[in-house]
Amino acid sequence: MSQKYNTLSEIIHERKSVRKFEASTEISKEEIAAMLSEATEAPSSSNTQSWRFIVIQDSEAKKKIKEFSFNQEQIETSSAIIAVIGDTEMHHNIDEIYRSNFEAGNIDKLNMERQIQNAKALYPIAPTEVLLNIASFDAGLISMQFMLIAKAKGYDTVCMGGFDKKQFAEKFELEDRYVPIVLIALGKAAAPAYGSTRLPLEKIATFI
Fold it and tell me: What's this model's pTM, rounded to 2 decimal places?
């Protein structure tokens, strides 16, 4: 296993977007599942957890995805592609989520019932655009969390929004409620990632 990092600050600074992966590196289904499970500790809107995942390790499936993803090399050479999918009908899980939270002892029955009532009054009638924005925002939170977890375990990633989402949805026969948000290539870097700079804080933050 490659270098592991001891602090969150190290992980954040060492994580870079890698576009050349070692095609021979294999990552087990169990290890990817463990990383995804840990990533689900990310926050989400009203804890609706609108994210879904398709983990693609099959070489022929990756080749097909590459065809409608601007032929990006990392799609085919990565150990896996994690497709992060947004569920725009997240309200179907409201009862299960809040009842589970109650059974875990995190909220009392009164709060559970109030939260279920409030969520059911909001999400089922929200415009599709609003629901898509929520799902996209939640997908961004968990995607970043997953990439940091992967880096902490010695793996590399790159997050990609540049792919034909309609063709992806058709290939994987997604229901209308499920919307592809990003693809995350996961593996071991075959070449160093390019460095990048950031705007100075005084240009992007105001303290009042």
Answer: 0.94
